[in-house]
Amino acid sequence: MPAEWEPHEATWIGWPRTKSDWPGRFAPIPWAYGEIVRKLAPGEQVRIIAGDRTHEARARRLLKRVGVDEERIQFFRFPTDRGWTRDFGPIFVRSRGSESRARSSSWGARRAPQTPSARASDLAIARFRFNGWAKYPDWRKDDRVPERAARALRLPLVDVRAPGRPVVLEGGSIDVNGRGSLLTTEECLLDPAVQVRNPGLGRADLEAVFREYLGAPNVMWLGRGIAGDDTHGHVDDLCRFVSAQTLVLCREKDARDANYRPLEENRERLQGMRLEGGSRPEVVDLPMPAPLFFAGRRLPASYANFYIANAAVLVPTFNDPADRVALGVLAELFRDRPVVGIHAVELVWGLGTLHCLTQQQPTRKT
Q1: pTM for this structure?
Q2: Is 2 domain-assigned?
Q3: Where in the sequence is the domain holding 221, given as residue range(s)?
Q4: Number of domains making up the chain
Q5: Does residue 25 sit within a domain?
Q6: pLDDT digits over 183-202, tens only?
Q7: pLDDT digits (tens, 9 = 90+) for 35-86
Q8: Among this protein's residues, is 356 annotated catalytic?
Q9: Is the residue at 23 inside a domain?
Q10: Choosing from 188, 239, 250, 356, which is the catalytic residue?
Q11: Contacts (Cβ under 8 Å, ≥6 apart) of 26
Q12: Domain containing residue 144: CATH number
């Protein structure tokens, strides 16, 4: 699985339509998406999932009003339950190099049938399953998006299995450096009682999956995620790779805050970890915004939920003094593209922000 900062052919995004995901605050959400697409489009195609003709027409009108070039967007009419494309959308992987093909097929031992007219490419889609974060009942439409995308793009679909069974995995539960290291959390993938994605699969089983299907033999297990996280520990709200050797980790300075101890424990874990080559990762502090609540609920507001696009790094902001600090930290780390803040106070009421709603498609070589 390539790193997010590697060149993209496109970004996938699901146009918002489920008002219950932002109860009472849906009206500004399409406009926030319009601003996101406006920032993405100068650097890459934006592939937008819309459920039907009416949904697509509504999105086209809004994008025209905010000044998005129509030639930079492409619509796909896939039925969906929600719009969190990071978690159910296609996870793109590259084939192994020719030197490994003597040992195994370029897509591993188990492979789903190719889509009709699949063209020669070094890309495929890893077919993980989605089950609504092991929490919600409406997920079956979302679960079919990877196979629909593979068919539309004419790419191979790699059936991800462990001891003979499909593997459930959301894109927000992992982050990779593209060199063989992967970040995830025990809370999300190993908790035996809460939001259990893969009952019966343990640490060794999942590490084997990451090694075989994502090319990541070096798994870096963090502990717990942040307060308010509806996914029970997604790593993209607390720790992210920004280069092959460097990662950012959120830090809470208020010892009374619910995030203080989990984040400090994750920092202690990282001190003993190594990257795929044996070196220590460089860990850079990323601040946390002040706690954000709505209707009495703590929201998972985090600057770590940024998205690395070709033309910019998009960072959620929360009308908080720490906004400027977070943008400055990331600007120092990403010197090759601008770092742009996107207002996310309404977005996070849906319990996710920029990284949660996007999914990158790497450039392909034919």
Answers
A1: 0.94
A2: no
A3: 8-362
A4: 1
A5: yes
A6: 999 999 999 999 999 999 99
A7: 999 999 999 999 999 999 999 999 999 999 999 999 999 999 999 999 999 9
A8: yes
A9: yes
A10: 356
A11: 16, 19
A12: 3.75.10.10
